[in-house]
Design a protein that fits this description.
Pfam families: DUF2804. It comes from Streptomyces similanensis. This is DUF2804 domain-containing protein. There is one protein chain. The chain has 349 residues and is mostly beta strands. It contains no helices and 24 strands. Strands 2, 4, 5, 6, 7, 8, 9, 10, 11, 12, 13, 14 and 15 form a 13-stranded antiparallel β-sheet that branches. Strands 19-18-17-16-24-23-22-21-20 form a nine-stranded antiparallel β-sheet, with no helix packed on it. A two-stranded parallel ribbon has the order 1-3.
Length: 349
């Protein structure tokens, strides 16, 4: 499935001078890297959680980009007329935002709390805390219409559930460690004003984590796709990346089927329309039959930012995956309407 080296023991990401340690380059089924980053200006750290149901989703972000921090809450209710809002706080120089060297809120990792306890205006409170069996996600803010919002979700990690952690090396001084965790059960609620929206009671609810720590080039482009749910009698998590890993010898491509990870060493062939992101996308492994999927979006979260130090163009499309995938042991899984997203991003930071 892959030519990449599997890492099974704890390892530091960096040497004492801040350069990438060659011993850290590889992938693992559980997070084993300690992101002991050095230096300022090109260092990027973040925790991004997205929790979906068949009818709505919520995403929480805590990020430290050195020259600023961005903490945000995004909510989407699917369908015509569904609610959508995002509340984000920009913190100059990341004051008060400290992300740990390991996954926040995980076993053995530090908790993260940012923002005021009673946020007003465009500010947001985000809490990522460890609890027995999982991670508690809490958030609080006001909608643009000044309705109070409260998020309280518990993401559980079934025993033995595997995820993809990988180091992507552009050079000794530019590299990224990412842990992508899919198909994690979640339960709880989001309160908007007097209305309570349930997660995980009568409907499936799944969480995906994007944990990132690295030292990045000034400009980069990437694709990211993920999905979680039940299909063909299995619990399936899809994790795909593109463009930013090309030429590094590493990919962030993997399948998680019933908690077991299949690492994919091929770069995927991504096809989509930049002028019409809501047109169907295709994702395939060009040299094998491991991935053959069509992604059909129903909503585009489009972001355009132009600031002195930051330029961002993001089309994050939510929709469904259909097609087939093949695991490392040769099992073919039919993918039918698996809920997730695919995105096209250009970033200057």
């Amino acid at each position: 499935m892959t030519h990449e080296r599997e890492i099974t023991e704890p390892v530091d990401l960096c040497r004492s001078d801040g350069a990438l340690d060659p011993a850290a380059v590889g992938w693992s089924r559980t997070p084993v890297h300690r992101a002991n980053l050095r230096g300022w200006g090109r260092t990027k750290r973040w925790e991004y959680w997205c929790v979906t149901t068949p009818t709505h989703l919520v995403a929480l972000t805590v990020s430290d980009l050195d020259f600023l921090a961005l903490n945000s809450l995004y909510f989407l209710e699917y369908g015509s007329g569904g609610r959508e809002f995002e509340v984000g706080s920009i913190v100059p120089f990341g004051r008060g935002v400290r992300l740990p060297e390991t996954v926040a809120g995980a076993t053995g990792g530090a908790d993260v709390v940012v923002g005021p306890a009673r946020p007003t205006g465009g500010r947001v409170r985000v809490e990522i805390r460890h609890e027995d069996g999982g991670t508690r996600l809490r958030a609080r803010c006001l909608t643009p219409g000044r309705l109070p919002v409260e998020v309280d979700l518990l993401v559980t990690r079934p025993e033995g559930h595997e995820s993809l952690s990988v180091v992507v090396p552009w050079s000794r001084r530019r590299f990224q460690y990412t842990s992508k965790q899919t198909a994690l059960p979640a339960a709880g609620q989001v309160r908007i004003g007097d209305e309570i929206l349930k997660f995980g009671d009568d409907e499936e609810s799944w969480a995906v984590l994007d944990h990132g720590r690295g030292r990045w080039p000034r400009t980069v482009d990437w694709n990211w796709g993920a999905a979680s749910g039940r299909t063909d009698g299995h619990t399936v998590g899809l994790q795909f990346g593109g463009r930013w890993t090309a030429g590094t010898g590493s990919t962030e491509n993997a399948l998680c089927v019933d908690g077991r990870l299949s690492k994919i060493g091929e770069e995927l062939d991504w096809r989509w329309s930049r002028t019409d992101p809501l047109a169907p996308w295709t994702l395939r492994t060009p040299a094998s039959d491991q991935v053959d999927l069509t992604f059909t979006p129903f909503h585009n979260r489009s972001t355009r930012t132009e600031a002195a130090l930051l330029s961002n163009r993001t089309d994050q499309c939510f929709g469904h995956y259909d097609g087939r995938v093949r695991t490392a042991d040769g099992a073919e899984i039919a993918v039918r309407r698996l809920l997730g997203w695919a995105e096209d991003v250009h970033m200057r930071w």
